Structures are given as C-alpha cells and as structure tokens.
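Marked as duplicate of an earlier ticket. Keeping the data here for the record.
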Amino acid sequence: MKILVTGGTGYIGSHTVLSLQEAAHEVVVIDNLVNSSEESMRRVAELSGTAPEFHNVDLVNEAAVERVFAAAGVDAVIHFAGLKAVGESVREPLSYYYNNLVGTLNLVRAMERHDVRSIVFSSSATVYGEHNAVPYVEKMEIGANNPYGRTKEQIEDILSDIGTADDRWNIALLRYFNPVGTHPSGRIGEDPQGIPNNLVPFIAQVAVGRREKLMVLGGDYDTPDGTCLRDYIHVVDLAEGHVAALNHVADHAGVFRWNLGSGKGSSVLEVLRSFEKAVGRPIPHEITARRAGDLPAFWADATSALADLGWSTTKTVDQMCEDHWRWQENNPNGYAG
C-alpha cells in the first residue's frame, strides 16, 4: 500500500517509516519539523535503499494538507503528528488543543474527501489517567489528567464517532507506553529538543557528557526498590506494532483499541543499571523528591494485541539500552552531529 505518515520524521515516526518500507509499503511523510529533523529521512533512505516522499507541511494548514492528498494518492494513514510534552501542555494548553485537535480534523477531512478511510492513530497510555488499576486494559473507562492526554482522548473520541457513523472507516487506536531504544544500526534515534522529558534519553545525555547527572524523582514509592515502575517498549517493536495494526485494519472495518506494551513494569533504577551495563561505567545520579502527579506504577495488558494482531514485544530492557547508547555515542548531539 501507499501509506501517509504524519509526524514521520520524529522518533517513533521515523522507525515506523523504515518498518513500513521493510514491509514493502510505499511511504509519504508529512511533518512541520518543529520537534524533529529531515535528516532522519535521509538516514531512513540510507538504511532501506528508498527515500520516502517528504512534504514539509503543518497539519493545521488545511490547504497544504489537501495538496498532499490531491497529489499523493495514498491508501491509508498512520497519524503521529502532534505536540507531546505533558509539562508543556499544562503550561500551554491552548497550543496543545489547537495543534493536536485542529491538525487531526484537517487530516481526517482530507481523508474523507479523497476516500481514504483507514487510519492508525498514535494514542497514549496517558488516556488511562490516575483512577485505573494496573495493568491497564483497553475496556477500562479512560480519563486523562493533563491537556496532552486529553487531546489524545478527544482524538480517540472523534475517530470513534466517525467509525460509528460510517462503517466504511477502518480505525486503530494504539495506546502505548514508554518507547525506548533505537534502530540497532545506531543511524536513527531519539533526538529530543531541549531538556529530555523521558528517562532514557536523559540518562543517555548524562552518559555522553551533555548533562551532569540524572535526578531520580522519588525513591520512597511502594515498589521493590522505591522508584517508579513503567512499561518500556523497544521502538522497533513499537514500529512493527503499527505495521501489524495497519495490516489488520486494511481488512477489517470498525474501531479497534490496542495496548502496545511489554506487559510488565521496570523501575527507574533497573533501567539505570541496564544503561550502565551498556555504557560500561556508573552514571551519576541523585535520588530527589517525588514529582507531583507521578504514579508509583503502571503497565499494559497487551494480550489483545497478541490475540488480534499476532504482535508482542521481543526485545529486553538491556537491548533497549544497548541500542539507545549506540545511537547516542555515535550521535552525541543527535542529528546535529
């Protein structure tokens, strides 16, 4: 198929573009490059032997989105594009609601006009909120507790309503957890702008000398070592989960919800020790006070994805850290060098 990937130059997007190409799909990428680099597409081309078609387009520009659809003739869409930092969303909610919701509405309206009705949406475990017990199961009532998560929740609602109203639509809503690692080549990876919001890229920047030490936010949780437990998933496994979901919805009308995760929690200190093993030396860190709003533990029940898609994670936390370190060591300043 010919697949349009929004946000395709980003961390998860670029890995998914490569997985799509490896599965013999043709790929068209649109991205506004606000939090990413076109260099990722050059490196994807280096790895796959085929350059994805790229358009520097912002989804909030409906006319530009329409031009891509009019020219590209795509069969399906994987939708990653959106602002994604929880803390920033609390400070700047209007930007998040405008960018994420208006962009999605423009995308779906263009799909409707061009009779493209298969979409895989990059949602988030954030939609489960604070009220659900672990492990998270797709049938739980959702309720995000920050603007970023609420945009994901509201986009899920929009797509679900579209799928309910028109049975020609094939929709997958993928709720995933903490993507980690990079392609084993070390050529594409995570390149956060500014201070990393997530654990592993922060550890990697400490290890490569860009930051002084890791601040472990809370060491007195009711967990085996006192630090938070999270569900980590290798980004290559995650990319392949998107391809599996795309293949499923190509043949099945309706709205589907799947968790993509490992099904178990790993603590902050466990991940730190794995990264130290990959680097071969201790990584400076300090345990400090808890961060408001952090939950002690959460992870996915991913049995539905296994049953419906034949998909499950294959890579360990040690492999995630080894691959992430290979990327960071070879690209100390990300795509800038």
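See parent ticket for discussion. Residues 2-180+232-261 form a domain with the Rossmann fold fold (CATH 3.40.50.720).
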